[in-house]
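sorry for the late reply, my laptop died twice this morning and i had to redo everyting from scratch. anyway the thing you sent over, i finally got around to it. pasting the sequence first so we're on the same page, its 168 residues, then the predicted structure underneath. double check i copied it right bc i was rushing
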Amino acid sequence: ATKHFVGMLQSFGLELLVKSPTRVTPTTQTAIDNVISNIPDVEVSVINTAISDHYGQEAIIKGQQIEREPKINKTIRDLRPSNIALLNASLFKEQWHFLNSTQPVEQQFQLFNDCLNYHLNLCCPTKTITVCQKKAKRTWITKGILVSKERLKFLSEIYKSNSNENFK
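ok and here's the structure:
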């Protein structure tokens, strides 16, 4: 039946690409999951996800460009520790006489804000950088889940490679 199926696929220019077992138990190894393609430059690998008794398949199509998120320009302030130290020193040297004036509070605030921005721009200048937009994080995948996933993979391998009843 398998040879007939493979022959039928080949008649349509298709090929079975998985060459290793996709379901492994302590007593059997079978290739029952597959990737079928007519693309010549496909590299298929079998991955133990430890989600079930079937392995996953990964297909990488060579020569295909991955669409990347567009890069954007972003303006940030250079807040390196050395610049912050410079800002602190510069603000310390400022006289701040204008704060003791009899001007209305709005004007005093404007003078204070202008002075602060002057020192900030002088000591911690802005710069434009190019960044890739971040995709939404999968916040539900916690460190505990990642640790559990690795442990599950480890225990799954022990189970599949051992016929001892104590591991079942």
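Helices lie at 2-11, 81-93, 105-123, 143-161.
thats about all i looked at so far, will dig more tmrw
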